[in-house]
Amino acid sequence: MSDIFTILQREFVYIWYYFDIQFRQIFRYWVIGMSIGSLISVFAKDRIHGLFAGIQKKKWGVLGIVPACLLGIASPLCMYGTIPIAASFRRQGMREDWLAAFMMASILLNPQLIIYSAALGTKVLAVRIITCFLCGICAGLLIHYCYRDRDFFDFTGFSERASHDTHPDLLVRYLLNLWRNAKTTGPYFLLGILLSALFQRYVPQDLMVNVFGGNEAWGVLMAATIGVPLYACGGGTIPLLQSWLAEGMSIGSAAAFMITGPATKITNLGALKIIMGIKRFVLYLLFVIIYAFLSGILINIIL
To answer: Which residues are CB-contacts of 94 (< 8 A; sequence separation ≥ 6)?
Structure first.
């Protein structure tokens, strides 16, 4: 009995060691990310969406996909918050290819997640921003050319939700938003660090290199596949990616994971299925998997 206790105690010390290192490395990015995310949500969200509404008056044609992507990345809303906004824009006559680009980019990235991803290094951060931006561009172009004379989205029943940020004191409004942000992301952040510590302790480095390393298409495909069940929160996956990259995961595989993860997050899928219907929903999943796979392969070749 004492031997079992000694073993458990030793394993706890090892796991705590890895947990503590990971926590120290990433904690500041989590705090900065939350702070900036809440700042944008409280003080700049309406401005961002106002800019998106404003491009509706421009005669940019298909080129309007580009600012739509940029504004989607800048938007701090989750997909359940983005869809009512998009529904409102559609009722005002916004083009569907612009909406597709805006929503795709918004699914994949936001200012808070950009700050989190800085913990992975500048190269991986740049890859994430570029691949997410181009994914939004591709989504918009596909809607433009394949659904030119047909509706792709059905926003029936969606209306813009009331904002939680209504306190008259701006400082209190910001602090309340920050507290909601911490409650939402904190558990996933700690769970991600715990999973990372367990991976570092019990998963051999050679296995990570064999599965996710090098330029092999298999590694990219595997990373894209595990992004589906493992992804719950952007901040929670950063510790895992940091650990995997350190143990030999290729940047292309990481990029594939960072695309399929948020794009197939269960809450996002639930919202998207409602506005797409089953046929177009399947097309969306195929697009995400193919884009993630090809992007990962291309990145590994380039880098």
So the answer is: 53, 56, 86
C-alpha 115/C-alpha 125 separation (Å) is 9
- Residue 243 has which token pair? 């650990």
Rg of the Cα trace of the chain?
Answer: 20
Q: Are 127 and 283 in contact (CB under 8 A)?
A: no
pTM recorded for the entire structure: 0.85
Question: Three-state secondary structure along the chain?
Answer: CHHHHHHHHHHHHHHHHHHHHHHHHHHHHHHHHHHHHHHHHHHCHHHHHHHHHHHHHCCCHHHHHHHHHHHHHHCCCCHHHHHHHHHHHHHCCCCHHHHHHHHHHHHHCCHHHHHHHHHHCHHHHHHHHHHHHHHHHHHHHHHHHHCCCCCCCCCCCCCCCCCCCCCCCHHHHHHHHHHHHHHHHHHHHHHHHHHHHHHHHHCCHHHHHHHHCCCCHHHHHHHHHHHHHHCCCHHHHHHHHHHHHHCCCCHHHHHHHHHHHHHCCHHHHHHHHHHHHHHHHHHHHHHHHHHHHHHHHHHHHHC
Q: Where are the domains of the chain?
A: 2-302
CA distance 117 to 269: 23
pLDDT tens figures, 94-122: 889 999 999 999 989 989 899 999 999 99
pLDDT digits (tens, 9 = 90+) for 9-56: 888 888 888 888 888 888 888 888 888 888 888 888 878 877 877 777
